[in-house]
Amino acid sequence: MNFLSLEEVDSTNLYAKKHLAELDDCTVVTASRQTAGRGRLNRSWLDLGEGNLFVSIVLKPSAAFNKNFVNLTQFLSVCICKTLEDYELKPDIKWPNDVNISGKKIAGILSETVMQGANFKGIVLGFGINILAGKEDVKKVADKAVTSLSIETDGKFCDKNDFLTKLLNLFFKNYNKFIEEGFCFIKHDYLSRLNFLGKEISVKLPDEIKCGIAESIDNDGALHLKKDNEIFVLTIGDIL
Ligand code: BTN
Question: Measuring from each residue's beta carbon to the nearest atom of ligand 1, which residues come in under 6 Å?
Fold first, then answer.
């Protein structure tokens, strides 16, 4: 694992994609400040201050694109949950990969595949985790309820480097096995951290909102949504 610590960037994901050719496999790019953080589905990720984590892991596997890379964000969401559990918190995963605590978002993940023409060049696995953000800081996120490690532990834990070290150790310890075995390797750990299965939910898709009962998650990590006896298999989206 290599580290590249930057002071200020637009986005660690953009930086890693732009410099992919010069960065080794398993380089971890971090920034103290992010001026244009990007989220899934064209959203943005707000910088809530220097004590929070803005990280992109550069992965440049020698093999061709493997379908298991699609589930990397779900693997990382499980690793983030396990790390938070080390602090005696009870996070859950909002499909596909948001990490929440009591309905408030603490971490988000954005994976981007880099191609050159038809050639697979690598993956930039970005994540933001709120660590030191205080109660006033999280109010800056207008569109959803947000929390941080510091808020959830009443200020007891707020060291972003400790958190990142624990998380990266867990991630890289299991990464190769995950790439070999895919979603089934984490399925049990993933399912045990979901709290919406069996419930009526609404999922925002790129061009519509679909409502139904969240039936199950299949062996590819896709969400099966049941509506009027029809099953919709969703691979992207956002539970509202
Ligand atoms: C989401 O929840 O929509 C995903 C948010 C991902 C944010 C992180 S912060 C570090 C990395 N750089 C970015 O621009 N985005 C990711």
Answer: 11-13, 37-40, 43, 45, 54-56, 98, 108-110, 126-128
CA-closest residue to ligand 1 atom 2 = 108
**Ligand 1: which atom is nearest the Cα of residue 36?**
14
Vertex 31 angle, CA 131 and 130, to 5°: 15
Rounded Cα distance, 103 and 119, in Å: 40
Dump pLDDT digits (tens) for 95-139: 999 999 999 999 999 999 999 998 999 999 999 999 999 999 999
Q: pTM for this one?
A: 0.96
pLDDT tens readout for residues 59-97: 999 877 889 999 999 999 999 999 999 999 999 999 999
Pick the CATH number of 200-239 from 2.160.20, 2.60.40, 2.30.30, 1.10.357: 2.30.30
Give the CATH number of domain 2-191; options: 3.30.240.20, 3.30.930.10, 3.30.70.20, 3.40.50.1370: 3.30.930.10
Bridge partners for 233 per DSSP:
224
